Amino acid sequence: MEGRARDLFTRDDGTTDATEASVWARVGGLSRLLAEIRSSPPLPALAELVGAMVGPGFRSRVDQVAGEERDRRTLLHLLLDDLPGAALVSGYALLHAGAVGSHHDGYLDAAVDQCAGWAAEGGMMTFIRREQRAPVPRGPAAPPLAAAGDTQAWHTFRPTACAEPAAST
């Protein structure tokens, strides 16, 4: 998983100040166990999170090792706070790839009542029982985020990949 954040402040005279942060984490697909984590700016205390499930209780563990980031409302903390939600919904990538079990082996049954979207009698579980598979949602293509004529309106993205980042932070 990789997250990047930037906060850009533009003054009336057109000068800017930008703050940036990033998090790179290797998380087990089905287990959601954190195997490795790096950040920029570097925060060595994040190593204490390795082995934790990036799910229930993870934010409390982040607060224990990075409480100052939380208190200062940093971009780094916002990225760390987003990891559990991102790990949860990233399961759809596994569904799309056919890497998760079926309704018959109990994998999808284990998701019942995990959230409103997976309510026992809700649309998702009704579909799973009827079709014997999880639906794979597909949304529309995201529009470009850059603003025409404003080179600083949106930060550039480097291509994403499944490989380890080139430089460690």
Describe the structure.
With 169 residues, this protein is α+β, with helices and mostly antiparallel strands. The chain folds into two domains: 2-89; 101-136, no CATH class. The chain is 27% helix and 17% strand. It contains four helices and three strands. The protein has helices spanning 58-71, 75-89, 91-97, 123-131, and strands at residues 2-10, 16-27, 34-40. The chain has a three-stranded antiparallel sheet, covered by helices on one side. A hairpin with a 6-residue loop joins strand 2 and strand 3. Helix 1 packs antiparallel against helix 2. 14% of the residues are buried. The model is unreliable at 163-169 (pLDDT under 50).
Reconstruct the topology from this structure.
Layout: E1 2-10, E2 16-27, E3 34-40, H1 58-71, H2 75-89, H3 91-97, H4 123-131
Antiparallel strand pairs: 1-2, 2-3
Features:
disordered C terminus, 4 helices, single chain, alpha+beta, 169 residues
What oligomeric state is this?
Answer: single chain
Q: Helical amount among residues, as a percent range?
A: 25-40%
* Uncertain parts: 163-169
Strand order of the largest sheet: 1-2-3
| Main beta sheet strand tally, sense and closure | 3 strands, antiparallel
Structural class designation: alpha+beta
The count of DSSP E runs of length 2 or more, i.e. the number of strands, is 3
Compute the gyration radius: what is it?
A: 19 Å
Q: What number of domains?
A: 2
* Average pLDDT, all residues: 83
Shape label? globular
Give the count of helical stretches: 4
The ordered H/E elements are: EEEHHHH
